[in-house]
């Protein structure tokens, strides 16, 4: 694999397992996954800053006498094939899409999964291509830059893959095996070299001497005469490691690291968790969701759109039970409850699959804690904790004071797109068989509560500090409009008893 002509700017992460051929320039903060193919077949390729190129992506310049320019903040998902003559900024190429060589992509466009563009055209800004027929519409705003994901991959990929780097006069690097004067492999064992007290890297810039050698001119002469032991050891290390060029000398950081402030928090006594406050000890995750409805006549069109947008899908048939218990000492621990005069409740949801082969598929019962809902302009959020369980869960919850509020059976499909998921299901009443033990028998579907419509829920679970989670859920719901009508539910009234 020839990599002549490759230029990698500082801050870019390019794995050595990718296939890169020809005159290619990779901009700073761009991440290229393994097994990606970037081939400058008929002309150079210039990739801008902060681009994300995932596995099995093909970016090929097949138009003679042209330069393929890829802008900034673009996302190329798994299996995307882009032969376009020009790519602007803030575009998203979803999985398995194809863009021909006569197509020009402007800014803020989204090419849906499995969509193919081959006719000569220039795509207008903020255009979304979706569905089997490559339907189009105009979005209200551009896709958000994946800055958090780029930062995460820049830290994770060097731990599991070798990286390609370009030696430049102002950037030092370690030469490993490859005898080419331009390209170097930085192994993952670089951290072991950093642990030593002093290390040397080859370079061509003006060498910087360590602080033990940097002194005023009137003090350099006595130090050279004394020949300290430290300098002799450094000279021996330099002689044992032939570099062929002038070398930089780096020193370890002086002083000890400051202890983490979290150690003090870990020693404190645990506080009771009541509500969805971010300061509570149990609020480690939050769920952001939007609920809506879809007509039964639009289900086929809705599922076809989701198959093009999402990577994974599955069917489910779950039995869900809702439990709650009042907080006895909530008046003293929760100032909101004492001011309003209401008694807050702790809500739990127990869900288990009633499919015949649920155990073979590894579908274990799940117990979820749901905090109080905080409604916003477009989305809702609440604290969220989840754990897999086994055994007589319902009897255990009743023995510790929980009361069953309601139960239902949900049958439908789930689609996954990145961190967000879409649930489309119908709600049925629960019918138990005529057996004595209701705990061991599986319930069955009864009357359909809403036969003319289906529930649609778009949700994502993440850290409370992640501000992009709400935007991802809102953008995914926007792609389903007008097939799905978002509903505004007053959860505060539902919580009142």
Can you walk me through this structure?
With 497 residues, the protein is an alpha/beta fold. It folds into 2 domains: 6-159, UDP N-Acetylglucosamine Acyltransferase, domain 1 (3 Solenoid); 260-273 and 282-326 and 344-433 and 442-495, Beta Barrel (Hypothetical Protein Pfu-838710-001). The chain is 18% helix and 33% strand. The protein contains 11 helices and 36 strands. A hairpin with a 2-residue loop joins strand 32 (403-417) and strand 33. The longest helix has 14 residues, at 147-160. 25% of the residues are buried. Its main location: cytoplasm.
**Overall tally of structural domains:** 2
Average pLDDT figure: 76
User: Which class of secondary structure composition applies to the elements?
Assistant: alpha/beta
As a percent range, the share of helical residues equals: 10-25%
Q: So how many helices?
A: 11
Strand numbers in spatial order across the main sheet: 2-5-8-11-14-17-20-21
Strand fraction equals 25-35%
Summarize the biggest pleated sheet. Answer: 8 strands, mixed
Fold blueprint:
Blueprint: E1 6-8, E2 13-14, E3 19-21, E4 24-26, E5 31-32, E6 37-39, E7 45-47, E8 52-53, E9 58-60, E10 68-70, E11 75-76, E12 81-82, E13 86-87, E14 92-93, E15 98-99, E16 103-105, E17 110-111, E18 116-117, E19 121-123, E20 127-130, E21 135-138, H1 147-160, E22 163-166, E23 183-186, H2 190-194, E24 199-202, H3 217-226, H4 229-240, E25 247-250, H5 262-266, E26 286-295, H6 299-309, E27 312-326, H7 330-333, H8 335-340, E28 345-353, E29 366-370, E30 374-375, E31 380-388, H9 393-399, E32 403-417, E33 420-431, E34 444-448, E35 453-462, H10 468-479, E36 485-486, H11 491-495
